[in-house]
Specification:
This protein has an eight-stranded mixed sheet with strand order 5-4-3-6-1-7-10-9, with helices on both faces. It is an alpha/beta fold. It contains four helices and ten strands; from the N terminus they run E-E-H-E-H-E-E-H-E-H-E-E-E-E. It binds NADP nicotinamide-adenine-dinucleotide phosphate (NAP). The site of NADP nicotinamide-adenine-dinucleotide phosphate has 28 residues, from strand 1, strand 2, helix 2 and helix 4.
Length: 169
């Protein structure tokens, strides 16, 4: 099973503020939906709760929520108390590509433990004030395998690029 992460990162590595996203980019939301649909996704409890109740669990995906609260339960999602047991659950369900969808704590743990094979990164070409950041991407460890750049337009206030990285051997 491949383990991927998907994230949108500002030029200053910002990814969130006050448990919310920093931008609304409809093409990025569509990309996220297309890439993750049909797969298991792992989310931290804070990121999960930031999704409006009527939109969660995210449809067409098996939602695995990480928390340390033993009484946490959100109907339709699966609760796990550590990252490894959520990964094992996806593996035992014959998942081929598992997605880590954030937030900051979960990305950091998965990268530090060297668990990630592939990263789908939307680079948002702007600086934002934030309280949650993505770790610096080490150019010696990660190879860009595709880049798809978009200018800003009436629906997208910032230019952005869909970049896929694979871990170098
Ligand atoms: N730009 C993007 O692509 C993107 C994507 C996702 C999220 N975000 C943003 O990121 C922010 C949220 O990130 P965050 O770092 O604050 O929180 P988070 O990573 O979403 O969730 C943290 C919570 O996950 C649980 N947790 C963390 N590590 C765990 C472990 N090893 N075992 C079990 N449970 C664990 C804990 O839940 P309990 O407190 O319940 O114990 C912890 O408080 C928001 O602003 C969100 O909008 C941005």
């Amino acid at each position: 099973m491949k383990i991927s992460l998907i994230v949108a990162i500002a030029d200053n590595n910002a990814i969130g503020l006050n448990n919310d996203l920093l931008w609304r980019l409809p093409n990025d939301m569509k990309y996220f939906r297309e890439i993750t649909s049909g797969h298991h996704i792992i989310t931290g409890r804070k990121n999960y709760i930031s999704i409006p109740q009527k939109f969660r669990p995210l449809p067409n995906r098996t939602n695995l929520v990480l928390t340390r609260q033993t009484d946490f339960n959100d109907e339709g999602s699966f609760t796990f108390y550590n990252l490894e047991s959520a990964i094992d659950f996806a593996k035992s369900n014959n998942e081929t590509e598992l997605f880590i969808i954030g937030g900051g704590q979960i990305y950091k743990e998965a990268l530090e433990k060297n668990l990630i094979d592939k990263m789908y990164v939307t680079h948002v070409h702007h600086h934002f004030e934030a309280d949650t950041f993505f770790p610096e991407i080490d150019k010696n460890l990660w190879e860009k395998i595709s880049v798809n750049a978009h200018e800003k337009d009436e629906k997208h206030p910032y230019a952005y690029s869909f970049v896929v990285y694979e871990k170098m051997n």
